[in-house]
Every structure is written in structure tokens, then in C-alpha cells.
Design a protein that fits this description.
The chain is an alpha/beta fold. Helix content is about 40%, strand content about 15%. The strands form 2 sheets. The chain has a 7-stranded mixed β-sheet with strand order 3-2-1-4-5-7-6, with helices on both faces. It has a two-stranded antiparallel sheet with strand order 8-9. Strand 4, helix 5 and strand 5 form a beta-alpha-beta unit. Helix 2 runs parallel beside helix 3 and helix 4 runs parallel beside helix 5. The termini are far apart. This is tRNA threonylcarbamoyladenosine dehydratase. Keywords: Ligase, Membrane, Transmembrane, Transmembrane helix. It is an enzyme of class 6 (ligase).
Length: about 240
């Protein structure tokens, strides 16, 4: 019989923690530089049920920062590449794949059908991001939302705080503005960087998939955002969250 693969984890969080994580159901929306790493960290911690969502395929420009992006996977669907990896980590994982960019109506449908303990918002476009946060908030489902990892290079400035405490992040500013119109100004845990964004790294786009611009990125910053998001979920589930910060 194979050695119990979560032996080291159990030493830290005990059998009770292992049982909690194995019975938890988590939704990860967006499998780019943040979400792909977050999903992997969740799987390696022993999360038992996961739904992953992304409608994108791997692009050559993803290789600098995204876990599923390799020269051999260019053109493949991110959901499929990530799913294969997650199932290789934990063959007992109950995994649902949704290969699409969720519109607001589908977000409601997915959230109503999932009984999720936690949602990880790893979307990098404002409109769908805000729609997901609102949908989660209205259903009283806990959510951690990743803000902008672009234009940043100092890992020591990455923090997890309530959305009203975010700073030096253009994406967070826009999200706060839109949420305020919905009478939501706090109660959303966010991963963000307090580092001032490098404006010289900004590039405009044609607006495909809700994106009008993007900042330059380095390999480790999106990954640490994903790490913090996964840690927030795992620590909350096993009752080690520092939610009062």
C-alpha cells in the first residue's frame, strides 16, 4: 500500500483538519497565473471537492507565470491541463471542470448548484470579477478575491486584507467603486500588493474578454497571490484564519 500522501500535512493540522479539508467544496474561477497555483495548493492540501472554471487556452505569453503553460501545452484548454495535473496529485479529488468564461447568469447557476464552502476569485477582468463577488456576497458564500498582480515585483508587499483596506492597486480601486454602487464596501477578503504599480509596464489591448489593458508580470508575483489565496481558504477551513487583520 502506498504511504499516506498527506502524512506531513496531518502532522500539522491533525486528523480533524484532514477530515475538514477532504469534506470541503471549493470553487476556483480563473486558472491564470494566480488561479492555477491556488488550485494546485488546494489540491496538495487535500481539498476533497473542487470546481475549476476558465474558458481560455494556453498562449505562448502565459509561459512566464502560469502553471499549465508549457511549450507542449500551447493551444490546449487551461481547464483540461490543470485538471489532469490536479487528478495526478490526488486521484480521489472530486473535480468538476467548466470550460467557459462565466457570464453573470451562469455565475448564479454555478453558485446555486455547488454548495461551496469557499470561492476563490482569480479573474483578471473587472466586469466578471465584480459579478462573481456580488453573486457570492448575496448568497453569503465566503470568497477571497485576487486583485492586480501586474506591474508588481516585491513579494514582501503582498497582503490579505478586507477590500476596504486595499491600496496602491488600480484593479482594487475599480472593484471598490463598482461594489459601492451595490452597497458593498467591506466583507470581502482580498489578496493585493501595496507596492506602487510600474506604469511603464502598461500595455493597451483590443478589449477582448473584457480586458482593455494589462501590466507586465514576473514569474513569482502571480504565484504568491495564488499561495495567499489558497492559504486564506485552507486556514479558514481548519480554523486558523487571521480574519481580524
Amino acid at each position: 500500500m502506498d504511504k499516506f500522501w498527506l502524512e506531513r500535512t496531518e502532522l500539522l493540522i491533525k486528523k480533524e483538519g484532514i477530515d475538514i479539508l477532504s469534506n470541503a467544496t471549493v470553487l476556483v474561477v480563473g486558472l491564470g497565473g494566480v488561479g492555477s497555483f491556488a488550485a494546485e495548493f488546494l489540491a496538495r492540501a487535500g481539498i476533497g471537492k473542487m470546481t475549476i472554471v476558465d474558458g481560455d487556452t494556453v498562449d505562448i505569453t502565459n509561459i512566464n507565470r502560469q502553471l499549465p503553460a508549457l511549450h507542449s501545452t500551447v493551444g490546449k484548454h487551461k481547464v483540461e491541463v490543470v485538471a489532469e495535473r490536479l487528478m495526478d496529485i490526488n486521484p480521489q479529488l472530486e473535480l468538476i471542470k467548466i470550460n467557459e468564461f462565466l457570464n453573470p447568469e451562469r455565475m448564479a447557476e454555478v453558485l446555486d448548484g455547488g454548495k461551496f464552502d469557499y470561492i476563490l476569485d482569480c479573474i483578471d477582468s473587472i466586469t466578471p470579477k465584480v459579478s462573481l463577488i456580488i453573486a457570492a456576497k448575496r448568497r453569503k458564500i465566503k470568497i477571497v478575491s485576487s486583485m492586480g498582480a501586474g506591474g508588481k515585483s516585491d513579494p514582501s508587499k503582498v497582503l490579505v486584507r478586507d477590500i476596504h483596506k486595499t491600496a496602491e492597486c488600480h484593479l482594487a480601486k475599480q472593484v471598490r467603486k463598482r461594489l459601492k454602487k451595490e452597497k458593498i464596501d467591506k466583507g470581502i477578503r482580498c489578496v493585493f500588493s501595496s507596492e506602487i504599480q510600474d506604469e511603464d509596464s502598461l500595455k493597451m489591448t483590443d478589449g477582448t474578454n473584457f480586458k482593455r489593458s494589462f501590466y507586465g508580470t514576473i514569474s513569482f508575483i502571480p504565484a504568491i497571490f495564488g499561495l495567499y489565496a489558497a492559504a486564506e481558504v485552507i486556514n479558514h477551513l481548519v480554523k486558523k484564519s487571521d480574519a481580524e487583520l
